[in-house]
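Sample A.
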Amino acid sequence: MAMAKQDLEYEPSEDEISSLEAFRATMGIETLEEALRALILLGLEATTMSDSCDDEERRRAVRRKTIKSAQLVFNNRNSTVSGLVSNLSETGARFVVNAPVKLPAAVQLRFPDGEERNAEIAWSKDQTIFGLRFV
């Protein structure tokens, strides 16, 4: 089902569209709108999951929906996994990959502009969606 652009609650930037196109192609999704809808739904699902946590575990910073290409770096900087950041806050991020992957507890989140943040895996779903807590 095609979705009209005006039906979206979120309008991606040109950089985000580029990252979204890569996600669309990797996941075999037909249109950019459907790929964006998939990422937004992933965000709603993860919000529901986090709402069931204890008050101490709940998010302490406002998160922003985004679509940014990024990599997780681990194994003494010898291994990387490429994916998309679908939301970002001062304290963490949601990282989405196209196939299940096992990750260590400690990783670095690296953006194409060279920015890196040390993080730990706070939660994961189906080894394809990861909640990162910056440390």
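Sample B.
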Amino acid sequence: MLANARTYGCLGETDACARQIGAAEDAFTQASRDQPGWVGNLANPARLYAITGHAMADLAEHTGEKAHREQAIQRLSKAADEFDPTTHARAHALCLTRLATLLVLNGDLAGEEQPRWRNERLPQGVSVRSGRLGPMDQAWQADEPITGNPTK
């Protein structure tokens, strides 16, 4: 269900992606942390927000729809707020990285927001070493403003 949501998002299948996200949210209402595997992971609201946020971000990248970006931003913001960076550093950093990209694309990470992100939010991920984060750790320490399309 969760992998399907991301897959449908990457394919630009809006209705199928939304159905899978809805199914994940339904499973969340019935999930318990005592359950094995992905069902137990869904009992963590941060995980649910992260997974569905990444699915919406994938969909937004494919469709270019601002409404899809807005939903991804909302979900990933909640995930970043819910994840404890000391116990879920990588997941937290991945959410912040994707969130920053979406905010730049949306035109929301400009002016007075840039220093706050550069000084408060993004440094939390600098100590995380992951191939999926790639060169972003150097970008977080740059003094230059964030401009352009970071996905190209």
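B remarks: The radius of gyration is 15 Å. Residues 135-142 have pLDDT under 50 and may be disordered.
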